[in-house]
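User: Before I run my own analysis I want an independent prediction to cross-check against. Here's the chain; please return only the structure tokens and, at the end, one sentence I can use as a sanity check.
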Amino acid sequence: MTSPAFESVLEHYRQRMTRESVLHATPGFDLHAHRDEMLLPVGEDVANLMVNLIVGLKAQTLVEVGTSYGFSTLFLAEAARRTDGRLFTYEIHPEKQAYAQQRIKEAGLLEYVEFHLGDAVSLLEVQPGPVDFVLLDLWKDLYIPCFDRLYPVLREGGVVIADNMLYPESARAPAAAYQAAVRAKPDMQAVLLSIGQGIDLACRSA
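Assistant: Structure tokens:
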């Protein structure tokens, strides 16, 4: 069961999503121009699926590539609390990371999270393993380089989820390239799920 502090922070995010949905629907609003100001979360359906997977796997080492404003970080940190694990989360924008850190602190989950600031492709070179669970949710052209960094330390049975496989439609070409790269690994089994914005769920087999 989640804590009142978790629920309070989740409500904060819900209210922000409601405000931003009004902006998205405003005639003439240019989402592309304001994308770094938007939450653009994975959504609660995907977030809850990730928590259930992590708990079911008893995953200890979690990696999030693309902290952004911390919506998915909140759920992953809660999952890490339940498994007594640790979340490593990577973000290139300091203002986004600071916002996420504050929310995680308010949720009482800061002890389960390591925040890393900078270029994820470079930082992931020293990511400790074995890694049990990965969420990729950053610029889509970086999915393959990040996956290539994490694949060597992904344990057997480890899971990789990649967001935005179906939407926005502008991301479909790099999303398809990522899916092909994952499926080219003989020990990776993957399925595309039409949940949220579309996720690719891949598991490393024995």
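Sanity check: The CA atoms of residues 184 and 190 lie 10 Å apart.
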